[in-house]
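3-oxoacyl-[acyl-carrier-protein] reductase
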Amino acid sequence: MVTGGNRGIGRAVAEAFLAQGDNVAVTTRTGGAPEGALDIRCDVTDPAQVDAAFAEAEAAHGPVEVLVANAGITRDTLVLRMSDEDWDDVIATNLTGSFRLARRASKSMLRLRRGRIVFVSSVVGLLGSAGQVNYAASKSGLVGMARSLARELGSRGITANVVAPGFVDTDMTAVLSDDQKAGIKQQVPLGRTARPEEIAAAITFLASEQAGYVTGAVIPVDGGLGMGH
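Predicted structure tokens:
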């Protein structure tokens, strides 16, 4: 199951799993999953919709063995201008939504005695970013969540990891001005933004048998932007 899989990183992840021949369920709020994926409507801020999404995926494909919690939003503004709603909406989607997904996924994974949980965080959650107090807090929180789950669920063969992308060519970064994009690239040792497929490659690795002994890890895919963090 890949949440937020209709565009950007989520879509690239879903397509990567489909290319491997996996049964893929994609949740979105508005539809538009890649061809070949089970297209499920789900708002991760609604517990009932989360439960219904898993029930639909299980009915079609059996127990969810891999969860990629990718759905996320931004409400960027300076802290003095940030409203309670700006804070609450981002935390509810990015952090609390991921918790609900992991809690529900763990039920079947515990019965199977295996599973992979991958949270999509951000370099911003490690470095911080002016104007993104809410987003950075939500993405940083995923690290603590994953490491706690790694300790709690590891004895049942379940891994929990975090991928922390840097700046990626997606709709979320397309709104930046050319000057902003140029400034970002100057900070990145590799001198460019990432392709969504490069993030997907790290996630499919963490979901693979080859990553069976990797848990509680934070994997940066950021061109070197966050080195040391």
